[in-house]
Structures are given as C-alpha cells and as structure tokens.
Amino acid sequence: QVRLIESGGGLVQTGGSLRLSCAVSGDTFRRLTVGWFRRAPGKEREFVAAVRSNGGSTHYADSVKGRFTVSRDSTKTTAYLQMNSLKPEDTAVYYCAADGRLILSSIRNGDQYDYWGQGTQVTVSS
Hints:
Blueprint: E1 3-7, E2 10-13, E3 18-25, E4 33-39, E5 46-51, E6 58-60, E7 68-73, E8 78-83, E9 92-99, E10 115-116, E11 120-125
Parallel strand pairs: 2-11
Antiparallel strand pairs: 1-3, 3-8, 4-5, 4-9, 5-6, 7-8, 9-10, 9-11
C-alpha cells in the first residue's frame, strides 16, 4: 500500500512562491511515477506536472511551464512542486498522485494513477 502525504499549501500574493511536498511511503520510491494535479472550484481536475520513476523525464502543463518545477529526492522519498510567479488562476486544491505501472502516454491522465494524497489548498490573491 502506497501512502502519500502532502504539505506546503497556503495563501500568497500574486507573484509569490510556494513549494509543495509529497512524502511517499509503502513502496520503492524510485519505481513510482509522481504526478501533480489540481482542481479549482467549478472546474475539472487538470494535470499540472509529473516526474517519471528513477529520475526520469519531467512533464508540465502549458499553463505552468516555465513557472513550476517538479523534482524528487530519493533520500527523503519525497516529491516536490516548486511554484514561482504564482497567479490567481493557480488557485486550487493541489493533489499529488503516484503509480508504478504508468506508460508514458498516460502520464497526464489522473484516472490512471492508483494512489493519491489528501490535497492541499493553494490560494493566490490578486
């Protein structure tokens, strides 16, 4: 059983930064793809970013590319989402997700991830 615990959300002004953390336990961390998704009020869940297993490739939604950075720390078995130059449009509940069997073509599809964190609120004031 894979467990994911998220932290780091909060309230920031436009242009500010936050770093979200996703601590992972219950499986071999290096074998897991870790994705980040978000859901704003009244909107569907959308893909934000992901990093492949074993230090593989990174992937970003067009809306966050150049502002957000996804990374992973094998020593701490933790994935991170560094969010810079935040905009009010980034306001949402952010979720980390993990899976050990994803094919590359499914990395942006939340329905393909088996394990999810509890979510953390990010609010960006204008």
